[in-house]
């Protein structure tokens, strides 16, 4: 609030305030570095930094926070970089490669036991994506998709939601790497379909969004139409009927995927979430129901019967 008020009413004084605050980013006291980083992060959500030619200075200081020993400082630094999407969207493209590198580093943060830095990196990247150069994103697409995939099943709902929304947003950039990214969609497909039964409504909403975004990249018009029509945010879903039809389309278009889809579902037989545990065997049942006889040989019955 203080920062917003200063951005609105004390613009001409900001360059001097920023200049005086920069040294505190090297303070030995965590509290001083946290406060200054939080102030700069909020400042980046206002266009005033652009008007006063402060953007590069403040942005570089936020980028420099990535190696800070304090996790909260690293997290706030990423939040500031993400805020450029609302404060100075027209400048994101120019600094795209640097911003993208910061987000990827944040996702790879090794000293982040609660994944708070990764969470900030994922939500900030989702904000920035619309303003980034396509080729910059495409060069990192695979790395990001692989990195965020484990978060789909995180115990923390906000990590599930952020990673799934980011995955949906990434599909916009898959054109140049269609085959490579299609593989990532197939890797995540079972998880996204099962998490439509997630206990948290915000995760269900994220899955609907991601599947709608994935649909056009799947090369199956029927599946794409189903995702667009049945996974609208305002529409309630009859899950069993929906999955029956999804499996029909999957087995018509990708019968060779049967065993792979079954193996991924088997993993969820031990899920902590009861509705997802129940959805996985139903998913397998519908797959087997709709596959033709020629492809039935793929199924490892012993593995299926033991449920492991």
TrEMBL record:
Gene3D superfamilies referenced in this protein's UniProt entry, alphabetically: Leucine-rich Repeat Variant
Superkingdom per UniProt: Eukaryota
Protein name: MROH1 protein
GO CC entries: cytoplasm
SUPFAM superfamilies: ARM repeat (SSF48371)
PANTHER family membership: MAESTRO HEAT-LIKE REPEAT-CONTAINING PROTEIN FAMILY MEMBER 1, MAESTRO-RELATED HEAT DOMAIN-CONTAINING
Ranges in a coiled coil: none
Domain Maestro/Maestro-like HEAT-repeats: 59-306
